[in-house]
Amino acid sequence: IRNGALAYAQRPAPAPVQPLKPYATLADAPVIEGKTFLGRFDLDISLENGHLPERPHARMVAHANSIKTIIDKDGNVIVLYNGRPGEKDFMGTAKEHAEQLAQQLGRPVRPVGDPEAEANAVRWVDDVLGPEARAAMKALRGQKGQVLVLQPVRAANAVPFGTGTLEEDPYFNVFLEAYADYALLDGFSVFHRPSASVTGFTRLPHVAGPVAVSEIDGAEMLRQSPKPHLEIIGGGKIPEKYGELKSGLESGRANEVLLGGRLGALALVADQLKRKNEEGKSWEEIALETVGAST
Beta strand 254-259 with 229-233: parallel, antiparallel or unpaired? Predict the structure, then answer.
């Protein structure tokens, strides 16, 4: 096993979390001061000309507020996020994400190893499993109110003998757990993913971050609403969205549904298929006539 991979076994176990809700939140963490939170955030933001939009995305602002909640209580945060190589939201460096988080936190930003870094600077490193990242995470021990942004977990694994993405490395979880006291899940939109950065930190107490809590509470409010409501559903992930569409209408939770994004386009195609199938056209021709060619 690589050096340091079992370091977590040589330190006291963190205090157990006693949840006030059916799941644990930051309010349930016995101690925040001086503790390090390994935070999984959803910072998948579409790029503009290869860069983050100049105006910070709402996700960036929301997750920065979650981080601020921790550092204001003298806790430390290691920022994990993904992006998908080859897609328009992927950037292989952590630099711009760190810059925008620092802007929201009102702090300077510096790369790891910068000798002129201010004491409260948000630090970033294009590394996760290598020596530079491990040294930066180890340096958080004994510190208070620090923020460290790591390279996207779906970047290519550059560790010797590593294959696939960083997150797919078999030592991904055991390495990172060695430097944290809690796993913080704040990206509610990624909860469904059975990936290492979401479900793999089994040796750490887990807490939900403020963004996740607000979205779970919102979903519960809709689910338990005594009156039917209008649902607006868009975006990708067609099977999951279709399941919610069907469930909402069949259960009576929703009396109307507005569709957008890919699901809306699919509904248009389905409607045209029903109307035009007697014309003998293929479904591909009908789809192109209805929503146009892919871009």
Answer: parallel
